[in-house]
Amino acid sequence: MACGKSEAEKAKQEAFQADSLKKAKTTNNRVWGVAKIEPEAGIMNITAGTSGKILAVLVDENEEVQQGQPLLTIEVSVENAQLMQSQSKIATQQSSIEVNKANLEAIKVNFRNAQENYQRNLKLFDAKAQTKQVLDDSKAAMDKLEKEIESSKATLEQSNNKMGELKADINYYQTLVRQKKVTAPLSGRILSLPIKTGEYVTNATQIAEFAPSGSYIAKTEVDELFADRIQLGQKAYLFSQSTGDTLASGKVSFAAAYLKAKSLFKDQSTEQEDRRIREVHIRLDNGKKPLIGSRVDCLIELKSDNQK
Question: Is 91 in the same domain as 174?
């Protein structure tokens, strides 16, 4: 019974395709093509974005990963040493700032005392009870302390600026360390990993070929004879080139606004083309999907669903 059912399904499939081909030739309400399966967001090449020796590869080919998940461990010994050195200077600089603050407050206290002493001598001088020399000396002492206050303020400001520079250094080295953590830019599937533990990578080194999560599309090219009849929402079916089995169905989600030379399945760049084509994308329905990169036969019904 199982064999009979399989043969019946196969016969039904062959009849469907034969009927589709016949209608395409006679009524032009369907068109056949060859399509390539891709993620709708496209296949991405992930680069290291940093340089260093690979200590560990944390994922495998064909593995599903989440956005932000670590992919590689890169050696960070130099950056960590620079970060620790900058962090160690923070406590020392903070102590210097506290000393400068204390010195400034002490000078301010001495200045207030000198100011009171000068005012007292000034009153005594006006009352003919103090000499001009004592008054001048107290004025000079007060002026000296006032200048010391300004100098102490400048020293404290320099210390604060130095602290700001150290914090900027720390942020910089922390950024370098974070950049050494190569993570997945989006959720999706790792298609290939052309790197190994122990290898040295640079910013531009490709570490993975990546398919973002989301819908798949079948990218095909429609001959210019049918190009102006393609509309968004038209139903399409995909078939295995080897077995003829139906692999998936979907709807036209994109149709280019211009005609161009055939390119998707062109074997040689010098090949002559007698017709131009329109690029078309078919977003696949939910369910089992063909393998990324596979070639499939594609049938597009040139009548949209709302016209049926």
Answer: yes
Sign of CA dihedral 196, 197, 201, 207: positive
Q: How far lies 259's CA from each of 5, 106, 245, 297, in Å?
A: 44, 83, 31, 21
In a domain, 4, yes or no: no
**pLDDT tens string 151-206:** 999 999 999 999 999 999 888 888 777 667 889 999 999 999 999 999 988 889 99
Q: Indicate whether 130 belongs to any domain.
A: yes
Residue 57 and residue 94 in one domain: no
Question: Domain total for the chain?
Answer: 3
Q: Whose CA is closest to 241, among 290, 277, 281, 279?
A: 290
| pLDDT over 90 at 289, yes or no | no
* Cβ atoms 73, 198 nearer than 8 A: no
* Rounded distance between C-alpha atoms, residue 230 and residue 140, angstroms: 95
Give one DSSP letter per residue of 69-119, joined into a string: -EEEEE--HHHHHHHHHHHHHHHHHHHHHHHHHHHHHHHHHHHHHHHHHHH
pLDDT (tens digit, 9 = 90+) per residue, 86-128?
888 998 999 999 999 999 999 999 999 999 999 999 999 888 8
Helix axes 132-179, 77-126, angle to 10 degrees: 160
Check pLDDT > 80 for residue 225: yes
**For residue 268, what is the DSSP state?**
-
222-240 burial, b at 16+ Cβ within 10 Å, e below that, comes to beeebbeebeeebbbbbbe
> Are residues 117 and 263 both part of a single domain?
no
Residues 203 and 260 in one domain: no
Indicate whether 90 belongs to any domain.
Answer: yes
Number of H helices, E strands in the chain: 4, 14
Tell me the residue range of the domain where 67 lies: 45-75+182-211
Query: Could you give the 3-state DSSP secondary structure of residue 302?
Result: coil
219 and 128: one domain? Answer: no
Give the integer Cα–Cα distance in Å for 131 and 135.
7
Q: Please check whether residue 128 is in contact with residue 48, taking contact to mean a CB–CB distance below 8 angstroms.
A: no
> Given a cut of 70, is residue 2 above it in pLDDT?
no
